[in-house]
């Protein structure tokens, strides 16, 4: 993996970890479920990371969370 792609992957992972940490804190401290839009944003970041890691020539697979 080249350096720029590695940095892009690391950036996605940092963002995802931060968002998941915040959602976890909401569950633990406030006993609240995260906002649906926040969950969708994290999912879209995971999808973007997945696409980044896939080879361009590979066929796209249908997400198991497509109805989320």
Structure, described:
This protein is an all-alpha fold and 68 residues long. It has a domain at 8-45. The chain has helices at 3-30, 36-53. The longest helix has 28 residues, at 3-30.
Outline the fold blueprint.
Elements: H1 3-30, H2 36-53
Helix pairs in contact: 1-2
Label this structure with key terms.
single chain; 68 residues; mainly alpha; 2 helices; 68% helix; 0% strand; elongated
Into which percent range does the helicity of residues fall? Answer: 55-70%
Structural class: mainly alpha
Shape: elongated
Give the number of DSSP strands: 0
Sheet with most strands: none
Write a brief structural summary.
The protein has helices at 3-30, 36-53. The protein is mainly alpha-helical.
């Amino acid at each position: 993996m080249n350096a720029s792609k590695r940095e892009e992957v690391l950036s996605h992972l940092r963002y995802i970890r931060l968002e998941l940490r915040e959602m976890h804190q909401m569950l633990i401290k406030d006993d609240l479920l995260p906002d649906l839009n926040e969950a969708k944003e994290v999912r879209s970041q995971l999808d973007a990371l997945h696409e980044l890691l896939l080879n361009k020539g590979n066929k796209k697979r249908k997400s198991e969370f497509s109805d989320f």
